[in-house]
Amino acid sequence: MKNLNYSVFETFHSFQGEGEHSGRSAFFIRLYGCPIQCPWCDSAGTWLSAGESDVQKMSPEALAEAAATAHPDFAVITGGEPTIHDLSPLCEALHAKNIPVHLETSGAFPLRGEFDWITISPKTKRLPLSENWARASELKLIITEPEDIGFWIEKISRERVPETTTIRLHPEWSQHRNPAVLSAIADCVCRRGHPFRAGWQLHKLFDVR
Ligand code: SF4
């Protein structure tokens, strides 16, 4: 196993609030760094790149031990944009503890590591690498205005996305009470059916991380 320490923004035990595994016990590992910098990012504190400050460094084994202590159903590696790091050692350490590894990523960088579930949330500022679209277990589209839906449908139709990949439409949280955004999502799901799903951030309703 490679000797590599990760710059860790935070770790915490909660439930997965989004996507196919919503509601399940999950240990979150949030790593530093994201060069994409979406204007509505809800984890902008992670943007500080590793080495710019006195950030917490943890080995893959220490992170896996922390996850194992929580006894979650799975670990979620997130950020920031976690795939700017080589995640292979962290995946190996988590698997050595028999913890399934879920990844949350924009898909804009090569995916390094063995993952049991991959959520790709594509961003317009930096689109996923073409080889990553087909690797997604699910796609999570963040909808800031109704016009976003057509943009993403056109984009996805040109990529090699398997028919089994679910596509979840999430209102960007500042728009989660915007009737235009919500009705556009509902209309898309009702008209198109599978693989489209309406998405939500359940943990925010519970006011937990
Ligand atoms: S890609 Fe994700 S972490 Fe990076 S700025 Fe956008 S929402 Fe934030």
Kindly describe this structure.
The protein has 209 residues and is an alpha/beta fold. The chain has one domain: TIM Barrel. It contains six helices and nine strands. The protein has helices spanning 60-70, 88-96, 130-133, 147-158, 179-192, 202-206, and strands at 6-15, 25-31, 56-58, 74-78, 101-105, 117-120, 138-143, 166-171, 196-198. β6 (117-120), α3 and β7 (138-143) form a beta-alpha-beta unit. The longest helix has 14 residues, at 179-192. The two termini are 31 Å apart. The mean pLDDT is 94. The structure holds iron/sulfur cluster. Residues 34, 36-38, 41, 43, 79-81, 106, 123 line the site of iron/sulfur cluster.
Counted by DSSP, the helix tally is 6
CATH architecture: Alpha-Beta Barrel
Report the C-alpha radius of gyration, rounded. Answer: 17 Å
| Ends distance | 31 Å
Strand content: 15-25%
Number of domains: 1
Order of helices and strands: EEEHEHEEHEHEHEH
The SS-based structural class is alpha/beta
The number of strands is 9
Bound ligand species: iron/sulfur cluster
The proportion of residues forming helix, as a percent range, comes to 25-40%
Q: Which outline best applies?
A: globular
The fourth-level CATH homologous superfamily is Aldolase class I
- Report the top-level CATH class: Alpha Beta
Average per-residue pLDDT, rounded, comes to 94
Instruction: Classify the fold: give the CATH topology.
Output: TIM Barrel
Low-confidence stretches: none
User: Order of strands across the widest beta sheet?
Assistant: 3-1-2-4-5-6-7-8-9
Main β sheet profile? 9 strands, mixed
